[in-house]
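Sequence in, structure out.
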Amino acid sequence: MPNKLSVTAGGAHRVGKKAYLSVNVKHRKVKKMYLTTGGVHRLCYRAEVTLTFTLSPTSATVVLKDSDGNTIQAVSSGVYSVPEGTYSYTASASGYVTKTGTVPVADEDVSVSVTLSANTPPLYTITVTAGTNGTITRKAISASAGSSMYVTAKPNDGYKVYGVSIKTASGASVSYTSSTDASGNMTCSFTMPAENVYAYATFVVDE
């Protein structure tokens, strides 16, 4: 519903040398109002409307500023009472990507829904290469830094794993713990670094 300002005159009367005009004012929300005379009677007003933010996740907060960069104080969480104008907002939450935008406000209440996207950590690849007489597999093609990962070297019949080398793209060795099952398959577990990883397995005859 738009802001409405209605003015009704209750009649003019004179007391001595002064003239009076009775005015009844009905309005929705008025911040400033004044009456001027000088041949023409004018009633000026500055109306406020309610600007409401609905945020997802609910833990998110919003900061609202006017066109001059002044921060607007909320009436309650996510709710503002503002005059006509264009406002900028910044919505943020821990673990989510901060979102900014602008909101034009005219003469009606405004509702704004803001949904934040979860931060996605960068993924690093795991490349595996096997020498002859065996294969090597990986837990996943890629992983984020700090993830628990492993590669498994599997020898062909009549062969055994000679060794597994795991290095980063920059050439640094990645430490790992290994275990070998009854079939001679060697699993090497490591913590994913913040780099791409290259694992290489070699095999020799099982004498």
